[in-house]
Amino acid sequence: MSSSAIDTTIFGHRLRHLRRQRGLTLDQLGALVGKPGPYLSQLENGHTEPKLSLLGELAQAVGVSLAELIDPTAPTRRAELEIAVGRAQEDPAYGALGLRHYKPSAKTKDEALEHMVALYEAWRGAAIAASGGDPMRAANVKLRHEMTDRDNYFGDIEAAAGEVLRAVGYSGQGPLSERHILDAIDHFGFSVQRVQDLPPSSRSITDLHERVIYIPQRDALTTRAMRSVVLSTLGHFALGHEDPTSIDEYLRHRIESNYFAGAVLAPEAPVVQFLRAAKKEKDISAEDIKDLFYIGYEMAAHRVTNLITRHLDIPVHFIRTDNEGIIWKAYENSGVPFPSHPDGTLEGQRVPITWGPRQAFMADDTFTLHSQYTHTLSGAYWCVTHVETTSTPYSAITLGTTEDQAQYFRGHDTERRFVAPARDPQAAQREERLRSLAGRVWPSGRDRRFVVAQTVGLSGERTFPGVDMDDVADFMERHDV
Q1: Domain 1-89: which CATH class?
Q2: Could you give the CA distance from residue 332 to residue 320 in angstroms, rounded to a whole number?
Q3: Number of DSSP helices (H) and strands (E) in the chain, helices first
Q4: Enclosing H/E stretch for 86
Q5: d(Cα 431, Cα 441) in Å, to the nearest integer?
Q6: Lowest model confidence (mean pLDDT) among 69-83, 115-129, 248-262
Q7: Neighbours of 50 (CB within 10 A)
Q8: What is the pLDDT of residues 23-58, one digit of tens each?
Q9: What does the alpha-carbon distance between residue 168 and residue 240 come to, in Å, rounded to a whole number?
Q10: Helical segments of 133-205, H only
Q11: Which one of 194-198, 277-281, 360-364, 445-449 scores highest in mean pLDDT?
């Protein structure tokens, strides 16, 4: 068990409840465990994590077993209601209402809290319904939960990638050569042709009759990126994908084909071997995976999330944001409290300014890996952020874990620590400024590049969300297909 696995809010309520049951003041409990009263007050308010070495002493001091002290349920209905009210106010959609943070006092009646919680739950349900029940967003949330449940590890895709690697004679060490890539293309019976006029909405077009994969010229698609695009395209055939007829299928195919490309370019066995050695040295870094296997940083970070929990038992989170902190895609099994829409989607939400993806852009050297610890109401987390400069606007790729597991990663010794408040202290002033602009301005926003925003629904016909099929048809006609 690690202290980061404990819900600090529930733990604080349990500790306060058990202390009072025992008739102890904070100072009296502090004398028993050798800690000052203010520190214990921080524990009871959920503002800090209990040290593992302290848990046993606290349990003994309040006269309960360790299991009872860290029980993950609220000690009373009153505590449960106070926790629910606090967490409701953490909801970004709730925060957008512009209400001041409310902390129940001892004088707040249980009945009032019951009403607050019931009203919030009803409001949240109405907000989800009002979103139109967008099937793309619902499918995205469902798939993300599935990925979390399986630790982002797809054993069947790793096996399919292994078959291809054996077929092309990969030795099991280092990056795949260009010969390996060409042999993989030939293994599936395709050839590759670079063209100047590929539609901008497509990263590749495959002619199934002529068995040709069209990709952009080298000035628009580097050799390193080409490897990923081609293998992702081949992934559809290696995994037996057929034309998607639903949003669920489309998203799953997209995830699986990209996973396949990563599993071929950074094979499971050597990556796991490297990660295990790096863990012993307490020097895990996606940067090394990138260099060792000649892949991009984002794919390297993905391969860490694919393999590190399954093989090294380390929980992680991954997030890609733009330079404004808007989430493009995210994954977590570490418990990090990503901001989310009432319908459960993360894409399109903005991470707090105290988080790594935002702080990296504010650092003195934006283009150096940025490591930091962030303290949230759910606990403390470490992360490292890489600013990607290959596209405009720049994006941030962040890989993180819980504070207790940070010791195994390069950059864990950083002294940067930030606290993410439950609510932005300047939110009220900012909201007033925005209200003053009503009717005075009409801004035109740029396109966002997160998947939920780039697609429309499928209705059973042969449609590929995010791709202009008229452009594709024109392209095919130009090439006499």
Answers
A1: mainly alpha
A2: 12
A3: 19, 9
A4: helix 77-88
A5: 15
A6: 115-129
A7: 19
A8: 999 999 999 999 998 889 988 888 777 887 888 899
A9: 19
A10: 135-149, 155-167, 178-187
A11: 277-281
